[in-house]
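Contributing new records

If you add data, match the layout below exactly. Sequence lines come first and carry their own label; structure lines follow with theirs. Keep one chain per record. Anything else will be rejected by the validation script.
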Amino acid sequence: MSETGTAREPLLKPTLLSHGTVECRDLTAARRLYTEVLGLEVVQTSAVSLMLRLNSTTTIACVQTKGPNTAGLFSHFGLDVETREEVDRAYETVKAHQDEYGIAKITRPVDQHGTYAFYLQDADGNMWEILTNPPGGYSYVFEMSDDARAWREQNQGKDRRETWENSAENSAENSARKSRSSTSTFWT
């Protein structure tokens, strides 16, 4: 919006939010965390880079650098699971394997902004959030009006939570049946 509050044509016309970037100091160790812990699909694209994704066309480029990573908690990527129980299991699994994968920090799961989540900080300082979310993640906010009141009126996502958690519980058994044979031992 312009300063007068009216919609304005964007100056640029991108067609896709294609990727974000994280940094690492050890590409091999980072790849191991991304595949074995976080369950991401990973492709090595050069001697110093990886591309990561999970059920999306949006990717994350991981680039090996020499300096310290200065990303903080608000510079993170979220990985959605269906239920609070899955968040708790993921938390316990990550805690049990923290040293093995060089995970620097792990927060306790908490209720926040309409989700239940915890964060982990990898050895390179990148932050990852494991959270419950409606199907489609935060894409539902784009169905709301472009007004902070709409977000506040539905209690920052909390008022939508019961509806999608109940539907997730109903679909969880079906999902579990489908994935029992292929579920990673990390998330069970």
